[in-house]
Amino acid sequence: MLSKTLQVNQSFPNSPPFQGSANLSKEWAVGQGSIVASLDEIVVGERVQGVVAGYSEVGVLPHYHDENARISYKSAHDQWEVSAFVRNIRNEVHQTVSFPNAPTQGNVLLNFNTPRWVGVEARYTWK
Fold it and tell me: Distance between alpha carbon 15 and the CA centroid of its chain, in Å?
């Protein structure tokens, strides 16, 4: 059994030094309701993939950012809402997580972001 610990100044796996998000929204009154348009961005910094048995870092995942957009019509008093959205506007593929299982299982677990997807949502609230 291996009993090594993390080395001094070694990065924690899958923990970027910076991660953040921003959202821009604008609302316009239209008839009895309103239209809301929003754009958001998620930014994740460069991070170490993982640590093999506590000995060494294994590769680096590059930074990435995703943009999403949404437009909605809300009725008066927010009783109902209809929205259209796009997630991952640029349709870029990035590896979001990597975890090496090489010492125990001989493989590496890789996770990727969701590809671009477009949708429509409807919501009704009983008050």
Answer: 14
